Structures are given as structure tokens and as C-alpha cells.
Amino acid sequence: MRIIVEGLEVWYNSTQALRNVTFEVREGEMTYVIGPNGAGKSTLLKTIASIVKPRVGAVYIDGKLLSRLSPRELGKIIVYVDPQISKTIPSTVLEFLLTARYPHQNTLGFSMPRQDLEVIENVSKQLNIDHLLSRRLDQLSSGELQRVLIARALVQRPKVLLLDEPSAFLDLRYRLEILDYIKMVAKANRIVCIVAIHDLYLASLYADKVVVINNGEIVAVGTPGEVLKEDILERVYRVRISLLSINGRRVVIPLEPIERIGLR
């Protein structure tokens, strides 16, 4: 399976958010989208998820135009994890996770609760949220809610997983554990996984492919070794960068703003 993003252009009123964005992602490939605030990372993920409609361009999955799929068909294929979801949703964690199984129920609305509960039990244990299942969403901390949101995405068993800042609100241990688990699940189940993230260190640690975006335009696409270079990152972020090699991977260490040291 692969996704092809072809010539996307998105506008919010008179402001253009994406400009001729084109790239492709294959199954089992961890693609990390990086760029500064307002670069268009979230808009790109929402457009792929058919939440935002492009003025120009299209998204294809295995040659099928995504915009022609029904909501139920989309629900079986794609899940977008919205980091801004409200904790005021009146449900327990278990009830919230069960809603992710809806696309897999038959058209009459009858579910297979045993199968659904087995999926939820497995994922919740892996993400260490099984003790939260009876809690209400409004009783969760920001970090707990983030883990529940990621769990819900995995419970849906998608073919395409779109994660917007999945490490937000998480301490260092959970950042690494959850990103490790997401990578393992994506590769084992041949999922197309696209992650929008601010943390350059995590992107350099986990990405198979990196998409650099700035001002709504693609700056570079390639492997971490091809894309995570000082000239590209310093131009996009205006930050002095140091690159280290750890266990054969290029790791990005931001140092200081370029303007502070008198460069333009």
C-alpha cells in the first residue's frame, strides 16, 4: 500500500496554507513531517485525512482517490489523531476507545463486543493505560489523554495512521515507549504512518523518511541522512544545528538561534 499526495494547495480564506505539496509514502515506512510553527504540518495531515478539502490537488491510496470514499470506508482506512480533542467528552476511556471500532461494525450497527474488547485490552496494556479504562476523560492528565488518543487510533486498526505531535505532554519515558510501539505496530502491520512533530531529535531517531515543510511548501524529502543536514535545517528553522551519529543514525541537536550569533 502507498499514499500519493499530488499537488495539494489549501487556502484558509485569503491565506494559502499549502503550496503544490507532492510526495508519497509506502506501507511500513515511518514518515516524519517537520517544520517550524505555522509551516503547514497539521494542515497537511488534515488534508490527507479528508478533514480539510484542498482547492487544488488530490490524495490517492493504492490508486484510489480518497475524496470519493464514504465516511465509513475512510474510517476503515485512515485515522487522524487530533491533539486538540476536548476532555469534556462525556464518556469513560473504555467507551471512548469502543467508538474507534464503529467502522468495523456491520451496517446494522451490531458489533462483536468480544473481539472489540480484545483489541482494546491488547492496545491498552501495551500503552499502559489499562488502569484508566473506567476513568472519565475529564479526569485524565494531559499526558494520560495523549496516550488514550494514540490508543484509540491503534484500536481502530487503520491502514493509514496520521499522528499530530504524538509526543506532546508526555515525559521522556513515555515519548520513547510510545514512539517505539507505534513504529513496531506500523512495520508489523504494514501501516502507512505519517507523523507531524516539532522535536527534531525524535524525528532523527525514528524516521525512515523525512518531509521538511516551510511556509506551506516542501523544502526537502528523503531519508534522514539525505534531509537532516545543517544547511537545510538552519535555513528552515534559523537555528544553529549540530549533527551527531549515534548507532548509525544521524541525530539532530539544536544549539542556538542563528540571529543571536549575528548571522543573517
From TrEMBL:
GO molecular function: ATP binding; ATP hydrolysis activity
Highest taxon in the source lineage: Archaea
Pfam families to which the protein is assigned, alphabetical: ABC_tran
UniProt-listed InterPro entries: AAA+_ATPase, ABC_transporter-like_ATP-bd, ABC_transporter-like_CS, P-loop_NTPase
Keywords associated with the record: ATP-binding, Nucleotide-binding, Translocase, Transport
Family annotation (CDD domains): ABC_Iron-Siderophores_B12_Hemin
Gene3D superfamilies in alphabetical order: P-loop containing nucleotide triphosphate hydrolases (3.40.50.300)
The ABC transporter domain, residue ranges: 3-240
PANTHER family: HEMIN IMPORT ATP-BINDING PROTEIN HMUV (PTHR42794)
Protein name: ABC transporter ATP-binding protein
Species this protein is from: Ignisphaera aggregans
Lineage per the UniProt record: Archaea, Thermoproteota, Thermoprotei, Desulfurococcales, Desulfurococcaceae
